[in-house]
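Researcher: Re-running this chain for the archive, since the previous output was lost when a drive failed. Same request as before.
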Amino acid sequence: MQDDFTSLILRRVRALTAYRLDPHPASVKLDQNENTLGPPEPILAEMEERLRSIPLFRYPTPGQPEIRAALSKAFDWPAEGILVGNGSDELLNTIALAVLEPGRVALAPTPSFFVYGQAARIQGADVVEVPLTENFEYDVDAFVDAVSKHAPHLVFLCSPNNPTGTVLSVEGIRRIVTSAPGLVVLDEAYWEFCGENGRALLDELDNLLIFRTFSKAFGMAGLRVGYVLLQPSLRRQIVKVQQPYPLNRVSQEAVLAALSHYDLVLARAAEIAATREALGTRLGELPGVEVFPSRTNFLLFRTSLSGDDTFQGLLERGVLVRNVSAHPRLQNLLRATIGTEEENESFYAALRETVEAGA
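Model: Regenerated structure tokens:
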């Protein structure tokens, strides 16, 4: 019998729960906050042109200088203070690797993106969670109190927040970052859908790091690209624990194509935001359906049925959403991505039929 070598795996790793997304065949997939409209056509055309000429036998450019220069121009921040990675997940784990260890503390909101706590626990850090309010708003006073009590080395903030869709005000961000003795991650994966961000705070708060992604508004989730705006001195240290080639050549060229048409990305994000408002209003008019305010490309909602019954009823009608009701603060709640016009109509019809039929 073969020896069981799993005991060699760190105890704290064995205690974790792996990320899991069960496959559910469905004709309408609205469960991962993807931009199902995809990149605008001019971006796709430039991507195709660029891919024709790149030497795929060459390694990617170390340090992504062209991408950092383009991001620097787009967001008026020095290229020396921009870190690019294989999606926000990789970058979140990179910052945790650089900052956290057993005996150190990370602070995070709840409910929010699971990677914050996961990245911290992998490094053996203690994780303190600060609950959002009953309306899923940030309780800034509670956050500041928790910072004072626990003196965290790393604080995670998410605005707009996933999965609630709520926004932390710029003044709220400033208060939390100012109170923090350590570094503060501000995850702005969905900022283009609300038009508000904390970029200006970088000019006054040296311990703030702003994380962003090409997965949402850019419609490029399959390419796995994210970036961080931070102080150049911090980047010089954090990059030491990052893999030397976090991006492949295809992703590098796609990002450059997308940034050359950033105005089209913002216009499409505004279109999705308008669709979100219209769809949310229609869904909220269905009997027994409650839709929560959102500033993202998704809606959080519940029906008069249980979360499991609503999820199953939608799935039986060909629509897949995310069932988030297992979280104690999200009982019977589900999350649905804003899709194409056809997808949204299918979702609306399926939800109406599910509620009317009692699942």
